[in-house]
Amino acid sequence: MDKLNAMAIFVRVVERGSFSAVARELQTSQPTISKVLRALEVELGGKLIARSTRKLSLTDEGQRYYSECRQILAAVDAAEHSFQSGRESIAGPLRIGSSVSFGRLQIAPRLPQFLDRHPGVQIDLQLSDQNQDLVSEGLDVTFRIGALSDSGLIARHVGTTHRVTVAAPHYLEKHGQPRSPEELTGHNCLQFNLLTSQNLWTYEGGHEVQIKGNAQSNNSEAIRELVLGGLGIALSPVWLFSEDLKAGRVIAILQEYSAQSLPIHAVSPANRRQSARVKAFVDYMSQALASAPELQPVK
Question: What is the pLDDT of residue 136?
Fold first, then answer.
């Protein structure tokens, strides 16, 4: 029995919460994963996982063993990395997380060039507008926009999301154009409700406006459609409306009042060493975002 491999499989099952998910990840079968864990339990002389039809839960012994396994595997990983430093190839699976809009518009179009450079990498891009849990979802790296609330993560600043206040021309023709942030209180403002400050729009110079409106969404592309439909005003990333601004489908308003920008971070689990492929991808995205025209402030 390969004890180290069995420990690694046990840790992945705990983190993913599913035998079948780990089987897919390792390109093997669920019975094989079950067999490995049963053999590990026999070797240890006790149950690690309390199995039920709905979910997996750890026994008390399993919880202690899981914590110890993570420390052992991290130590082995660090030792191997120290030995292989400078020689690790950029290859293997890379599981990336992102919000739907940022992933679709800013990450996916850049994947072909990255894979041209590193053909040995296999990418799994997971998009969700909920705050993804890196460990339970098996993510190697995820991109988050805005302030980070979890300090127990490895985070690297890779870019800045500049924001712009926009409205469709026909909305402004009907309702008039606000000349200061304070005048937004008299307009229908559309809220992206995954930001902690969703109904408080902040502009440089000490302008903080409590906005209100009759529509909100947890998806920024849905907000874009509402703006294009003439429903109201939005404070959104420049990259979301860059083509619409060029085409005149929306107008940037309040341009003399710079809206508060949001940082973009590449985030990885603190207990997992960054592989060469993760580092290469984060380096690549950092360079790409720095030169992307749609991530520059509107002038």
Answer: 67
